[in-house]
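Hey L., structure's done. Input below.
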Amino acid sequence: MRNYPLLSLLALLLCTCGPAQEDEELTASQGVTAEGAPNIILILADDLGYGDAGVYNPESVIPTPNIDRLASQGMRFTDAHSTSAVCTPTRYGIVTGQYSWRGPLKQGVTWSYDTLIINTAQSTVASILDDRGYRTACVGKWHLGLGWEMDGDEARFDRPLTAGPNDLGFDSFYGITASLDIPPYLYVRDHRVVMQPTDSTQGTATGYFDDYWRPGPVSPDFDHHQTLNHLTTEAERVIREGATGRAPFFLYFPLTGPHLPWIPREEFRGKSGAGNYGDMVVEVDDVLGRITRLVDSLGIAENTLIVFTSDNGSQLSTELMAEYNHRSNGPYRGRKGDIYEGGHRVPFIVRWPARVAAGTTSDALVSTTDFYATFAEITEQDREPPGEIKDSHSFLPILAGDAAAQPRQSMIYHSAKGLFALRDGRQVLVAGRGSGGFLEVADTLLTDPPYQLYDLGKDTSEAVNLAEEQAGRVEELRGRLTELRKGSE
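Output:
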């Protein structure tokens, strides 16, 4: 717990003046927690597209009853975005409330044995809640680097990690290092590997097939096909434990699906009209159902804030979308990795019965960096600690029913290859040619001038580049983007 003088003094007074000593820690937590603060469960799907769930796309060929039900019980956002079109930078933004390019990661993602890319001295969503007496836990896919002790190119799995979620305000961590297709394939609890890898997998055939994963070490307790189910069981344990405590709890639950490999468990096979990818989305939907049903059954639903969103758009190819007649990213151009809307516009649903009206919709612009400021406001804390830049805006007024609230008018997006875009109102400037993603889009590689300007209010599919005819607007937005990025190049 960080040492904020006033909070520390309150905790000290409560501990020394209270009638009993056996509950000192819980009593102190109650004393510094904002009155009525909710439990918080943040569920982050991996590569789930805006158009996968029925509530966002009535023509979806994938049944998502639990996502749809969550929306009917809370607020659905229609203009929500991840800060990046790939995994790691979005997670950096969620945890820190900052754009990832303000830190060491300028493009791409962290890899197998990369070091932790978040400075342990900075505040995080977990540390600010920890400061308010929350019990904080992370279960699932981390993908922000860890503190491995290396022997040449080999990780010492028998040695404790020197850095990880526990050093960023999380009381506990249980999960995997990165995506389910990136080694090592093992579980980590807090600072230690749960079971030493005694074997290795050769991975699957070269190329991105449904069951694709890379070669690497694997522990005896690791089964790719059961990983999502295994992590969900652990998340359920954390929730049950949290429900019995006197302090509120925060669970950050980043899922492993529907990211590759698309290997749904047998009970979900054939349940969608979009092949193994769609069946993985059905399994993800079931995970959400398990979590919400558990919260309801424990009697804590009224004051438990549940968020369900995704780290970026779907990776489903154009060819497969055509084959399945399924627009995984809805009406938007592009997919995972791209600077276009399909790369970063994501489903975003919040249920909080005590504060959020059921069945409501908001078209306000929100970002996955905004959890930091929102949770800070919920627990009555400063949103921007001294010396730290935060790219986070609280959407609590929207949740509370203020239809006119617009926490932000602008937002910066970042593609897989480091291409920037600035959203301002309904317009978006792409500061370069192409998609900035894994597959380039030919018609935007030859743009002259080398910028793209789209009006999302009139051109949802980003088909008409206005850069040439609105040169003055391009220069204005370029200048603003440069100013916002100053010092981070």
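The first strand starts at residue 39 and ends at 45. The chain is about 25% helix and 15% strand.

-- N.
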